[in-house]
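From the pipeline queue, job 12 of 40. The input is one protein chain; the requested action is below.

Action: predict structure.
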Amino acid sequence: MINTPARKRLAQVLSASGMPQDVKAVPLESYSNDAWRIGDRIVRVCWRGDIGRLRREAAVVPALPAEIPCPEILAAGDDGELAWTVTRRMSGQGLHAIWPTLDDGERRKAIAQLADVLRALHAWQPPERVRSLLLGHLRAQPTAPEAIVGADLCPLPVERAQALVAHAESPGLDLVESRLGELAGLDPYREEPRSIVHGDLHFANLLWDKGRITAVLDFEWVRIGPPDLDLLPLLRSVDWAGSGDAELVPSREMTRIFGWLAADYPQLFAHPDLIHRLWLYQLAHTVRELYTWPPAVPEEAAADHPVNNLPRFGLGTDHLRGLFPLSHDG
């Protein structure tokens, strides 16, 4: 066994959870945690940011309505330094990987099922103990940049995004700071939202098998929020820079996806100024990415690095209007 920091963290979790140390652990791709496949189980280890997010996930998932299929949580815990979950492995492939092989009928079916999942989640009223846990997270007030970055993928209320801008070093932030000020009136956290949102529901967090969504993964970023905040992960999946990255979706394809989703779940698109609201979400999230991507200057960075995307996004809303041609924003 290679004695890397990730392997050391896994050994710590295996010991704490009573699992054998001599198991064959296969590393899996994960952006926020360590993730491992051990037989028919998936072990995820959170070691940075707010490790309480796995505790919230472990409370939320077993209480979800039946319309939202999720892997069974077999064990969960934390020791103050690490948090972990052990789940049963589910059948299927990530929808992002299999999407290019699906025909139009299968793609349409997948989006209809995604709409059903989102509608069920946003209408769900969690048990009081779960709601209390999520309310505690909602009412936390992180102020240091590392705490803001570790709290949520979209740093709202808007004062959080503004604090990240104030501490960041990147070209073009004066324009972004100005835009955030202009859009502050659309911040949904000016009042306390009531719905539960997944927070990270892009295609890689959906498993697809034999014509159906078999699992919704990774509720670690679950939070109380407005339903349309769950459109942000799809916006993050657009290939804005035209890079041709196989994991990203061309804008013309995402326009069709949003059209299908709007037909199946129109309430998700009902905000009277949807375009500017999504613009706020997009700018706030991209500012956060300045802290999570390796530092870079524009001429050396990938085309879709935040140092390149922020100036692109800050110019205006034309890039968003092209995705939502029937939007009725003000």
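Job complete. The chain has 13 helices and ten strands.
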